[in-house]
Amino acid sequence: MSVEIIESARNAYHYPLLIKHLLHTPLATAPEQEIVYRDRVRYTYREFATRISRLANMLAKLGVAQGDTVAVMDWDSHRYLECFFAVPMMGAVLQTVNVRLNPEQVLYTLNHAAPKILLVNSEFLPLVASLADRIETVEKYVLISDDPFEGPSSIAFEGEYEALLASASPDFDFPDFDENARATTFYTTGTTGLPKGVYFSHRQLVLHSLGELTALALAPSQGRVHRQDVYMPITPMFHVHAWGFPYAATLAGLKQVYPGRYAPDALLKLIRTEGVTFSHCVPTILHMILGHPDANATDLSRWKVIIGGSALPTGLAETALKRGIDIFTGYGMSETCPILTLSQVTRSMLKDNADTGVEMRVRTGLPIPLVDLRIVDEEMNDAPHDGKAAGEIVVRAPWLTQGYFKSPEASEALWAGGYLHTNDIAVIDPNGYVQITDRLKDVIKTGGEWISSLEVEDIISQHPAVSEVAVIGVKDAKWGERPKALVVLKGDGAAPASADELRAFVMSFAERGVISKYGVPQNIAFVDALIKTSVGKLNKNALREAYPEA
Description:
Blueprint (H helix, E strand, L loop, with lengths): L23 H6 L4 E4 L3 E4 H17 L7 E5 L4 H12 L3 E4 L6 H11 L3 E5 L3 H7 L8 E5 L12 E4 H7 L14 E6 L9 E5 H17 L11 E2 L8 H4 L1 H8 L2 E4 L5 H11 L3 E4 L1 H8 L13 E4 L6 H9 L3 E7 L6 E4 L15 H4 L4 E2 L4 E5 L14 E6 L11 H7 L5 E9 L5 E6 L4 E3 L2 E3 L1 H9 L4 E11 L3 E10 L9 H13 L11 E4 L13 H7 L4
Parallel strand pairs: 1-11, 3-4, 3-5, 4-8, 5-6, 6-7, 10-11, 12-13, 13-14, 24-25
Antiparallel strand pairs: 1-2, 8-9, 14-15, 15-16, 17-18, 18-19, 19-20, 21-22, 23-24
């Protein structure tokens, strides 16, 4: 079978998928729309485009050329959004530095990515100063500060961000180049070993933006995002480009609100004053927001929130729904840019007018457009989509990373068999909804069965006395492993619960056949807090180390 090649006109424009082209629509349809930073900065998309050009000229004057890397250390801000565009648009590579890693990990990521310029918020000057003599490639530093910086610093800055921007030309001719050119680099927040560099091209980021918007716009009502929404990220911009939503929100011309460092009172104030209607975060952040006293005085009934990073507990989902929040799950990982699935609820799935669809909202969801998602056994054979047979999720999509930066062996393992391996175990029901049952490394092997720690966590989260919970496997001489529950109780006057009560609560689910009797934790410990990663996920490796015994 022959494939016909379509000839193009000699003068036709060969349209590369470049980040600069995401600006066409907002500048044509919403040039006066606002971009807001806390209560400090407010400007239009038209001004945003000018600032992008100024930033590119400023970086070029500092010596940045195509292929160079520019690193940024900042909280979520309009400045970060400007870097999301200006740096890759000029053909350079943006490194978003995870400021929550420990100092040695920050140093490793900087030296591994080899940036030429580092833009650093004044809050991180003590950290950077302590590492400066070991940072190998940075030639020049630019200071970022909300207020005039008056403190001493051992770092010789080229200047302050706003002052350098003001002195730069407002015109920059952003070139065309190969759409497969690397645009961004950041580092995974894995709990073992050194962070791994993940990178994405212009083509991948453009297609991911289109995939996100298509999936959100296809929803008839629940989980739908449209041009009148007001967007505020509550996932760090240093982590997977804030799940890619700043690019998608810009493409759609939405009003955007950037909160700086996350504080629940400040986030709730921005929701009230700026009319925020769409956000995304990990469960621990939403838990923190809903637990703040100001939450009760804030109307959250127009707020749509995608939860990712960790499983959405049913108990937290029910609490959010009672406040009127349109909450639902999104799934992905650093290596997938990240969105692979969204768990939106169709009208046909609701049993009656009072049904909130919580059971569907907490699932992993349906693959978004262009995602080829399978569940397979060790031989890459497909598991049936019956809602029972489990397998590892493997995926293909046009925005998945092609590998780990400077790590060919790990890249080969990631893409073994021609699909990206997630190490997540899941089932798929006949309607196509994916449900992750556990991470490969977190499955508890006990009594001849595999027990899902996520399922047990979800059940315990539904008890009215429970605030947070983590379930881990601990060694057991008889059973090999047994589940151990680490529970944080609510402190808002809710009736306390004993270990026996929680055990009986879980046993009631086992008696109904929801989980195996081996999933009922005989060991329940009450703790003040759960150990989490730098981006707010449960750190189960650290929890297993802290609680090794049954």
